[in-house]
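User: quick one, fold this
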Amino acid sequence: MSYKVILQDKYDLSPLVEAINLRDSLEQVAYQGTVNLVVTPDMPVISPGMAIRISGVPYGKKDYVPLLNPGVVWEVESSNNGNKRMTLTVYDRTIYLDKSEEEYLFPAKQTATQRFKKYASDWNLKIAKLPDTGKDLGRSVYRTQSIYASMFADLRETAKAGGKLYHPRMISSGLELYELGTNKEIYILEHVTDTTQSRTLEGAATKVKVLATTASESGQEVPAKVMAIVEKDIDKYGQLQAIIQDDEVKSNAAAKELANSKLRGISQTISLNAPDINTVRAGDAVILGGMKLLVISVSRELGEPGSMSLELGTYDDVKRRFYLE
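Assistant:
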């Protein structure tokens, strides 16, 4: 078997493994795994909270690399219908950012990078790679919510300010703030099956109006000030207007940039099955039919050969769906 499952850095569970499934998505922060095991008399006691890692040999390579590491056993389910079996649900350690709550008050003029250092420090996470996101954020008050919700609010505000798209990842050396689509190896998807393409005008916007925060004068309600109006493809798709009212937009130039980013015609997503490329993660770029697309989600069954199910979208569609809504 070209995969290894190691518990507590000392127990090799690989010979007991019947199946391994992994799931990664831009809609969640933690890489999730399910490991099915045969129970033997000499296997160690496995409990939630234990450290675990999954490694494998990448497509076209010979050496093992970490796939889900560092991980934690989150749930253990045992069954006995004549043969004893055990199913482990495991996550990488960003799960603690999703399952922990805190309140934060951040001043204006900080970047998401600076705030991520604070989050990582508070939750004792090593930092592997933290690029400068380059956009000053407004003052933020995050009441009781998950750490990841606060993180993603910072990343959405960065994108709205014209910044790049980022997603947190846990890799072996620590927490990484990954810029979407910047994977060094961009795989060309071949031998795909069960391809489904969905194209829709749902959520389209051919005219976008950005309004300043509504103010009152002498107790009288007044119309909000229009900071920008942009339009595109009205003749083609009809007039579908979206209105944005955002406290963080301070200038007409910023308002116009935000409005342009919300213009949207037909959006499409592509779902398919393919032979597994076990290092492909959510947020990575892949090539399909000559198009460069981003992985929105990937569910894989590890094996020889393994298989994976992908949901793909264009950069602009991913930006609008996850970062500008």
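User: anything notable?
Assistant: The radius of gyration is 23 Å.
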